[in-house]
Design brief:
Blueprint (H helix, E strand, L loop, with lengths): L25 E6 L6 H8 L5 E5 L18 H6 L2 E2 L12 H17 L3 E5 L3 H8 L11 H14 L1 H11 L1 H6 L5 H14 L14 E8 L2 H18 L1 H10 L14 H8 L5 H22 L7 E5 L5 H14 L3 H7 L1
Parallel strand pairs: 1-4, 1-5, 2-3, 2-4, 5-6
Helix pairs in contact: 3-4, 5-6, 5-8, 6-8, 9-12, 10-11, 11-12
Length: 338
Amino acid sequence: MQDTPYRESRMISPSLDGTRNSDLPPLIGIVGPTAVGKSEMAVRLADIFPVEIVSADSRQVYRGLDIGTAKPTHEERRRVPHHLIDLVDPEDDFSVVEFQDLAYAAIDAILKRGHLPLLVGGTGLYIRAVVEGVRFPRVEPDPALRQELEHRARQDGAAVLHRRLAQLDPLAAARIDPRNIRRVIRALEVILTTGRRFSDREQPAPRYRPLLIGLTRARDELYYRIDTRVDAQIADGLVEETRQVLARGCPPDRPALQGLGYRQIVAYLSGRMSLPTAIERIKFETHRFARQQYTWFRLDDPRIHWLDAADPATFERAVRLIQTFQKTPTSREVAVTQ
C-alpha cells in the first residue's frame, strides 16, 4: 500500500481474456480497502444511473451484525435497492459458493429489470468469484470432520492445519493466509472428503462484462477514517450488539464473531482484555486488513480503474467511466457496423 496509491487507467474495461468487446451483460464493480468510501460512491451513483447494489462483503450477510459490519443505513437502502445483506444468522455457515450463486441470481434479476448492477465491497474472494466466474468445488460440508479440524485448530493452533494443507495441496496453502482458519479448514475438508485438491478448479467462466472502479486513499488518511469509524461504532453500541448476539446463543468461535471488531469485543466481554485495549486492537487489525486487501485489488491490475477517493473530481471521473463503458459496442454491434 503506497502513501499516494493513485493510478487512473486509460483503458476501456478490458475483459478477462484481454479483449475489449464482449457480448456478455454489463457489471460495474466498486472495489478497494475498507473505509475508503465505496458505499458512499455507490449510493451517489444511484442519482445518475438506474443502479441496484449487490453487496460483496463477507460479514454483511449475517443478520444482527449491523454496527460492526458498517451495513448501509435505512436511508441508503431507501435511496437504492441493496442485495445480499442479512442472509443468514450469525451461527450459520455461509460459503463463497453460496455467495456466488446468490450474486448471479441477484445480478441477473437486476439486468432483467433494465437496471445496472453495482457489485460493491472489499471481500476480494467474493469479487473474484463473480467477476472472474471462478468455479469452486461443490462439496457439501462434513460437520463431523469440520468439528474435528476446528478442535485441532483450537488445541494445537492454526499453523498446524496450514502445514497439513501444505503437505496435501501446496498450491492452495500458498494462496490461503494461515490465519484464515475457515478457508484452511474448507480446503482440507474438500481434500479429505473427495480426494481432490482444493486448488484443482475448472477454468473460470465469466458471465459478465465488467468495469472495475477502484477507490484508494493515502495511507494516513485511510487509517484516520478507519479509526474514526471504529470510535463511532463503539459509540453506536458495538459492545451491546455483540453481547446480544452472544445472548441469543451464537458461539463466540463462529466465523461471524471472528471478524474484525467482534472478535476483540468478545475478548473484552469474556474478560480477556480491557475495552480500551480491545478498541486499539480493532484499529490496529483493521489497518493491517486494509493493507492485505491490496493483495486482492492490486494497484497494477490493468482491469481496475483506480481513482483517488479524496479527490473532489473522482465522482465525475467515475460517472464518465461508466458512461463510456455503456457506450462501448459489443462484438456483435461492431460486426454489424462493419
